Amino acid sequence: MKEHMNTATALIAEDEPLLAQALQAELERVWPGLRIVATVGDGAAAVQAALLHRPDVLFFDIRMPGQGGLEAAADLADAWPHDAPFPALVFVTAYDQYAVQAFEAQAIDYVLKPVQAARLQKTVDKVQGLLARREARTMDATLEQLRGLLSSTSPAPQQAPLKVIQASVGNALRLVPVEEIVYFEAADKYVRVVTGEHEVLIRTPLKELLPQLDASTFWQVHRGTVVRATAIDSVLRDEAGKLSLVLKGRPEKLPVSRLYAHLFKAM
Amino acid sequence: MTIDPVAKLRHLLQVLAFCLAIATLQYAFLPERGYGVQLAYSLCIGLITWACIDFPRHFLPSSAETGWPQGLAGAALVVAGIAIGYFVGNLLGDFLCVKFGLYMGPRPDPVVQTRHSVLITAMAGITGCYYFYSSARRSHLEHKMGEAQRHAREARLKLLETQLEPHMLFNTLANLRALIALDPPRAQQMLDHMIAYLRATLEASRATLHPLEVEFDRLRDYLALMSIRMGPRLAYELTLPSELAAQAVPPLLLQPIVENSIRHGLEPQLQGGRIDVRARREGTQLVLEVSDNGVGQGGEGSGDGGGFGLSQVRQRLATLYGDGAAYEFQSAPGTGARTRITLPLSS
Q1: What ipTM was predicted for this assembly?
Q2: pLDDT in tens, B198-208
Q3: B-chain residue closest to A61, CA distance
Q4: Which residues in A lie closer than 8 A to residue B268 (C-beta atoms)?
Q5: What is the pTM assigned to this prediction?
Q6: Nearest CA to B100 among B41, B149, B47?
Q7: Which of A95, A165, A166 to mutate to test the interface with B (most CBs of B within 10 A)?
Q8: How many A-B residue pairs are in contact by the CB < 8 A criterion?
């Protein structure tokens, strides 16, 4: 265990350069054996760097440009190779009462900014313990925690369920009844709304659409995909263990994120 | 138009006390008629007059505000109430006095008696009505004043909350803590900006206006703090023509707009961006413009175009200038955002 502690590696994702520097300095003090393999300033870069370096610990800031820490962690979990153990996750936040409550509820480690040595020491002790008995920590546990976090930080449904989607097509406004929709897919700045025969583009982000959809009818299967459960024909698993959905009435296959793979289990 | 039974009971007791006082006064001047007679007439007339005015007044349309009808309706109600009180009260008084044998001493001259009686009823009725009316008006005004004060306090508190946004505050403190170890002179500089910003924030919740020059200085403090945090991701330029420096503007009017640009425009953008704040004169108008080249906001749909800080800006403009000020916000995804405020020049 001692040798492992001496060679542990970490990745810091923090968009404010001074704070990244400060965190690194504090870490050097409380965990001299830790080597910081990379420091990045946004979520997408964090995912890439983590896949490249495969560090033991991730320090992710919650609020970053582009993709925040939570979404980056979810994406990383999805892209993480099957055979490698998932890194220990520590979130860093300046002030976010809801996030902190969610971390407590999911027993996820977090550090508050300004980072204080005593608090960081506690987190480091926990992470070191976790790394020592790393085999006990499975990917499933991390996925479960992330799912809990993502669902507790997204707004609760309050509006009446949507009945029709209104999309502008050229100069016309097209109404698509929700019953005809097979799936929604986030694409850059738009969301594709796909029915059996057509598709339209709308500007409302998926995040805002989700609370307005009936959760038992439409399942989120990926960060950017929401599919009608009854339109799913079958679920395929490839050699790497990744799931994809075969649809009724549509030729394309939809990938299932690891985060949502728990939805598909034989009864 | 709900009638408060406790208030009515209080009025009843006040009317009873008033009737007793009148009966006692009359008895003092005409003791030979006996106290019982005075009391019977006084109570009968007083109570009936009271009942005919204090209850029906709530059903008249113009009584919604103070509880008392306004103008002619109010005067008519009082005259009618006193007249009914006088006639019905006298009949009832006659009946009671005969029934209980209250009359004593020689019968007075009926003409003199009627004159006295009419005079006393009219004066007592008008006095009583005026008393109740003015106390209702006073409590109505007090209530309204309390409400206005409560609104002002709430607005001040909300303003303070937006300007001391905890996320900004704690991130700035975290940066300051880091700077103390790395670069003490710069830490001191940052602390100075922070002190100026905090002082302005606390003062802004009190003062109603300050010079535009000071407003720009506070923006500079805020942007300096933010640029220490964001590093090269934030660029900014403030343009204030010297002839407009003394123009009076509401304190920290522009700060929520700049904050909004950073938070929703530049922060989500990997490469950051730039913010321009410009003041200029257009005829008799002062134009303040904040523009950024951030990610832009999704128009009406995404809702962030009118975040809390911004609705606060609009509200403050409306309170201070009414229709004299205008607020425009323009943004679309990919094109940045532009906010334009037009105020009357303060000469």
Answers
A1: 0.72
A2: 888 887 777 77
A3: B171
A4: 65-66
A5: 0.66
A6: B41
A7: A95
A8: 75
